[in-house]
Amino acid sequence: MQYSIGDISRKTGLTVSTLRYYEKLGLLSAVPRSRGNIRQYGPQELDRLRLLECLKNTGMPLKDIRTFFAWCDQGDSTLNQRYQMFLERKAETERQIALLQKELAHIEFKCEYYHRALQCGSTDAPEVQQMHYTVPESAD
């Protein structure tokens, strides 16, 4: 199955200019083109873009993503590097999730605090003042 750049944009949520930028950076192998010079993305490019976005969403810099894809292009001799990279990415993502869960708990408390303040008409109301919350310290 072949996809145009517009099709890929709709499937991935990436803008056409972002797709072109990724290609320019070498994050995508040279995308084949039709006789009319129209990019023709296939399932491999789509999978690569989805993985690229996954890694980017975990905070991995584009230069490191480019290194990863270069390892993929080198073949099985780089399996250990790729495996180690994913172990590191997993640990970093778990750290980010833990941090966001802590911050979500703080935000949930503030939602309840302000909900109660709205019901009482003031943050000075005794029912609001009774609310106690301590933000957990980071687990360093």
Count of DSSP H/I helices? 6
Number of strands: 0
Helix content: 55-70%
Give the percentage of residues in beta strands. Answer: under 5%
Query: Radius of gyration over alpha carbons?
Result: 23 Å
Terminal Cα separation, in Å? Answer: 49 Å
Largest sheet data = none
Secondary-structure element pattern, one letter each: HHHHHH
This entry's quaternary arrangement is single chain
User: In one word, what is the shape?
Assistant: elongated
Mean pLDDT: 91
| SSE class | mainly alpha
Poorly predicted residue ranges? none
Explain the layout of strands and helices.
Elements (H helix, E strand, L loop, with lengths): L4 H8 L3 H10 L17 H15 L4 H13 L4 H42 L5 H4 L11
Structure explained in plain terms:
There is one protein chain. The chain is an all-alpha fold and 140 residues long. Helices cover 66% and strands 0% of the residues. It starts with a helix and ends in an 11-residue tail after the last helix. The model has no long low-confidence stretch (mean pLDDT 91).
Task: Kindly list the characteristics that best describe this protein.
single chain; 140 residues; mainly alpha; 6 helices; 0% strand; elongated
Please summarize what this structure is:
Helices cover 66% and strands 0% of the residues. By secondary structure, the protein is an all-alpha fold.
